[in-house]
Specification:
339 residues; alpha/beta; five-stranded parallel β-sheet; 23 strands; binds flavin-adenine dinucleotide
Length: 339
């Protein structure tokens, strides 16, 4: 069980920045994210695209913003628990008990939900058998590529992930790339390499085909694919990998008894608390009259929510407002001045 002052759900830009606001006032935070990387939408959806409306930063990319936000919280040595989805929350005396999909348990008087548009989840194969084999032959991400060494693999999809993994895995496995269209959506450069590899016999390409069935009882023996006219073909394979992009789901947050407005959580704008004491919502996931889904709004929301967390985490202490420019305590916390 991990005890902390605040559990932050979501490592998007707003979840990262609130760690800084909490750290400044002396509160410890742990951050959980469903994805395998930090940065939320900025990293998952537009790492290379320019952003022009972060205050005092004329231009940055999703990736550089994330990097700088992490630099700004370096002093707090925050633990990020990635690949973990927050599943359940329950009340335990004055604390919230939070459980993740990886069975980690946190105990904290405060939860800050900075879950954006919900958790990003892979779009899955549209056939029923795929569920039975999930993580036992059917995969939607790769944690360790050596698992696939010398195996027969079918990769489905036409975007960047499908192409990049087809290229990478063809170096150590027997790869067939299957896509429902003749044209690939991914980077032209990657599509060219894939086609070159096919000519050189380094991988096979099957287009326009879709999955039709998975054969096998306890393990995958093969699959059938079908083309647009319904012609079916059998392929012997050990595993199949689906890269069909991500969908965003509110997921388990919908079951925590919080007031919801469509896929967002109403909050009061005084401290960004939800209808439950000690549970705050900031960033894209929260709603209130006039809400703007911008990163800069999330930063402000985090600053106020952090101060409200102080009351529950340190009930016997008084919060003192201070500026980073002039406060020795805050500068020490930030590690910018020697004690
Ligand atoms: C293409 C594009 C361009 C944009 N350009 C701009 C721009 O120029 N300026 C601007 O201000 N904004 C822009 N935005 C919007 C901006 O990206 C969002 O406002 C911002 O990302 C919201 O940050 P967040 O931290 O609230 O949520 P997110 O960035 O969505 O991060 C939320 C995180 O929470 C995680 N999560 C959700 N549920 C769970 C759970 N149950 N357990 C664990 N983890 C969970 C998710 O995996 C995700 O990583 C753009 C958005 C897009 C898509």
């Amino acid at each position: 069980m991990i005890k902390t002052d605040v559990l932050v759900i979501g490592a998007g830009p707003v979840g990262i920045f609130v760690v800084q606001q909490l750290g400044l006032i002396g509160l410890k935070a742990e951050v959980v994210d469903n994805l395998d990387k930090i940065g939320g939408q900025c990293i998952e959806l537009y790492p290379d695209k320019p952003i022009y409306d972060i205050p005092a930063v004329p231009e940055c990319t999703g990736e550089s913003l994330t990097k700088n936000l992490l630099e700004q919280i370096k002093a707090f040595k925050t633990n990020f628990h990635l690949n973990e989805r927050v599943q359940e929350i329950s009340r335990e005396q004055n604390n919230w008990k939070i459980q993740t999909s990886g069975k980690k348990i946190f105990l904290a008087p405060n939860i800050i939900i900075a879950a954006g548009v919900g958790s990003f989840e892979p779009r899955k194969f549209p056939i029923k058998e795929a569920e039975k084999f999930e993580n036992k032959g059917v995969f939607y991400s790769i944690k360790d590529k050596t698992y696939f060494k010398n195996k027969k693999i079918c990769i489905f999809g036409g975007g960047d992930s499908a192409l990049d993994w087809a290229i990478e895995l063809s170096k150590l496995a027997e790869v067939t790339l299957v896509h429902r269209r003749n044209e690939f959506r991914g980077a032209e450069h990657s599509a060219t390499i894939v086609k070159k590899f096919e000519k050189e016999g380094k991988l096979k390409i099957k287009t326009p085909y879709q999955i039709n069935s998975i054969e096998g009882n306890n393990e995958i023996k093969g699959i059938t694919i079908k083309d647009e006219e319904g012609k079916v073909e059998t392929i012997t394979t050990d595993c199949i990998l689906g890269f069909f992009g991500l969908i965003m789901k509110l997921g388990p947050i919908a079951d925590w008894g919080l007031n919801l407005d469509k896929k967002t959580i109403p909050v009061n704008t005084e401290n960004f608390q939800t209808n439950k004491e000690g549970i705050f919502a900031i960033g894209d996931i929260c709603t209130y009259p006039g809400k703007l889904k911008l990163i800069l709004s999330g930063f402000h929301e985090g600053a106020l929510a952090a101060r409200a967390c102080f009351k529950l985490a340190r009930p016997n202490e008084k919060y003192r407002f201070e500026f980073t420019t002039t406060s020795k305590t805050l500068q020490e916390r930030l590690g910018v001045k020697k004690k």
